[in-house]
From TrEMBL:
Pfam families: Cas_Cas1 (PF01867)
UniProt name for this protein: CRISPR-associated endonuclease Cas1
GO molecular function annotations of the record: endonuclease activity
Entry's family note: Belongs to the CRISPR-associated endonuclease Cas1 family.
Organism placement in taxonomy: Bacteria, Bacillati, Bacillota, Bacilli, Bacillales
E.C. number: 3.1.-.-
UniProt cross-references to CDD domains, sorted A to Z: Cas1_I-C
Residues that, per the record, bind Mn(2+): 166, 234, 249
PANTHER family in the cross-refs: CRISPR-ASSOCIATED ENDONUCLEASE CAS1 1
Family annotation (HAMAP family): Cas1
Length: 343
């Protein structure tokens, strides 16, 4: 159980939520696990749905406290809320900004700023941790180049220019992704990004990691009452969770890429965990996919200090905290959306 930004996150599986006076009580097999006053809460997010008492749902509905149910893996199930109030205003603000490209750029540039900042520090970490295994001078030169691009991103007012700066940064960073693969070099390499279909082992893993991250981000956005399908940088397209793709940009490198690199460098997966189809597509085997998903869920339990809140949280809660911060910014509670800046 973790309280962040007036939101209560319940990570324990098989927990029943009940009401006692003005308090929420967590029960597991009739044993009381925790108790917390409700009067300062805006939302309750429960992972691993067992149930909630009608009394608790009624109490929360009357006081505009939403209850969000997720699977234990983080997939959004449902959001229970009373009569429509704040969420209507929140979504109308989201839609209004999305329709205005200049306003969209001012929000989206912080997603991209976070992405480039985090890529820069991934390169810096490599020069610190593996100076004898990489070309430190080249890594440092690219890190400096990314710093220069961040200055332009910080002041960018146009979506097209923002996309151009993001593209330059991505090309510069991607040149070094192969150098960050330190083990199993014969079977794992990165030359260029291939998506549909992935054409090598690394791209197969990146595609799955990005899909899982996008799903987690979409669930987090739905949980705070935002529309995951209406974005700012990624424009509307039927069936595409554009806002989820926007917000996950800052997490691609430090969340997904680093996870894939760790599976390779720690030899969790090997060449036997992949198959190549007749059309050249490379896919994980069933056993390889199980290893990948098990490691992904384990990774989400690892702890990190959130750079903006200063709170110790699990990696799995990072998308939910960023969604909360975005909602607060759109409501006018924050002057600017704070991206997740890792170092």
């Amino acid at each position: 159980m973790k309280k962040l930004l007036n939101t209560l996150f319940i990570n324990q599986p098989d927990v029943y939520l009940s009401l006692d006076g003005d308090n929420i009580v967590l029960l597991k097999e009739q044993e009381k696990l925790g108790r917390l006053p409700l009067h300062n809460l805006e939302s309750i997010v429960s992972f691993g749905y067992t149930g909630a008492s009608p009394a608790l749902m009624g109490y929360c509905a009357e006081r505009n406290i939403s209850i969000v149910f997720m699977t234990i893996n983080g997939r959004f199930l449902a959001r229970v809320i009373g009569a429509s109030r704040g969420n209507v205003v929140l979504r109308k603000k989201q839609y209004a900004i999305s329709e205005d490209e200049a306003l969209s750029a001012r929000v989206a540039r912080n997603f991209i700023l976070g992405k480039v900042y985090n890529h820069k520090w991934m390169l810096e970490r490599m020069t610190r941790d593996y100076p004898l295994r990489i070309d430190v001078a080249q890594f440092k030169e690219t890190s400096l180049h990314l710093s220069g691009l961040m200055l332009g991103i910080r002041e960018c007012e146009e979506l097209e220019r923002l996309r151009g700066l993001e593209g330059q940064a991505a090309v510069s960073y991607n040149k070094f992704l192969d150098s960050m693969i330190l083990q199993q070099k014969e079977d794992f390499f990165f030359h260029t990004r291939s998506r549909r279909p992935p054409l090598d082992n690394v791209n197969a893993m990146l595609s799955l990691a990005y899909t899982l991250l996008a799903n987690d981000m979409a669930s987090a956005l739905e949980g705070v009452g935002l529309d995951a399908y209406v974005g700012f940088m990624h424009r509307d397209r039927p069936g595409r969770a554009s806002l989820a793709l926007d917000v996950m940009e800052e997490l691609r490198g430090i969340y997904a890429d680093r996870f894939v690199l760790s599976l390779i460098n720690k030899k969790v997966l090997n060449s036997g965990d992949f198959i190549r189809k007749e059309n050249g597509a490379v896919l994980l085997t069933e056993e390889g996919r199980k290893k990948f998903l098990t490691a992904w869920q384990s990774r989400k339990q690892d702890k990190i200090t959130h750079p903006y809140l200063g709170e110790n949280i699990s990696w799995g809660l990072v998308p939910h905290v960023q969604a909360l911060l975005l909602a607060r910014y759109l409501r006018g509670d924050l002057d600017e959306y704070p991206p997740f800046l890792w170092k």
